[in-house]
Amino acid sequence: MSVGGAQIRAVLLAFALAALDLTGVHATETLSWIGGTEIAIGRGERGPWRMNESRFDYVDDPSVALDDEGVAWVAWVDQARKDVLLQRFLRDGTRLGEPVNVSRSPEIFSWLPRIGLAPDERTLYVVETPTARCWSFKLSGPGQIESANGPYRGEKGTVVVGLGGYQMFDSMAVEANGNVCIATLISGCISVIAPDGRLVEQVPTGDRVTTNIAFGGPELKTAYITLSGKGELIAMDWPRPGLPLNFLNK
Questions:
Q1: Which of 41, 120, 144, 212 has minimal Cβ neighbours within 10 Å of its Cβ?
Q2: What is the pLDDT of residues 27-40, one digit of tens each?
Q3: 101: β partners
Q4: For residue 135, is pLDDT > 80?
């Protein structure tokens, strides 16, 4: 957000990666950038004292996942609508269909949507922050959502899990076996959720503001976790391998 009602843009920057074949690329080689694609645009106006009397109509917190066909799934927040939206894009920026409203609940409006694909790429996961809720969307093909015809508002997805108590979800990664690992605020841990919604475990991190997790190292069995409260990036051995990422380590 910026002063004076300046427009705020959420721009997809992942097409450059999606369009590249990184196989055999060495550290000394140069990767070229092919530009970005504007997804959404909104406004923001700062009030006279920090957040007081401010208008938050901007678009915010985009998150991207790439399938093996190079289709980019993008989730972002529309503060004016108080909705979390999900849309698909080809490598060249072409939009596939209309944005899907993920939140559908302005009264419990979420932010920080994070997304990830299951190992078979037939399921897309989307997590919400304040509800500590994880949604799943069945995919009928690359970039195609199969509607779940939800009972309340015709939801296209289904809720995998909603944790109780005072805790919130942030960023996520997926294990090779399909478990979803979600950085969990307040509780200060990584919540490991099975595809059937079972809470496998919560791994303490020692920081209530645990914000992200990614897998690397030999066999992808090292978890790299950001501890924003402490300003630290830590690494820990993980009992199960992470899911290799398309166009990176797969």
A1: 120
A2: 455 656 667 777 77
A3: 85
A4: yes
Rounded Cα gap, residues 219 and 240, in angstroms? 9
pLDDT at 127: 86
| Long-range contacts, 15-23 (Cβ 8 Å, 24+) | 15/72, 15/89, 15/91, 15/92, 15/93, 17/66, 17/247, 17/248, 18/66, 18/70, 18/72, 18/91, 18/247, 19/70, 19/91, 19/92, 20/247, 21/247, 22/247, 22/248
The yes-or-no verdict on residue 210 having pLDDT over 90 is yes
Residue 52 burial (CB < 10 Å; 0-12/13-18/19+)? exposed
Closest of 112, 10, 72, 29 to residue 245, by C-alpha? 72
Which token pair is 120?
A: 């078979």
Integer Cα distance of 128 and 36 in angstroms: 26
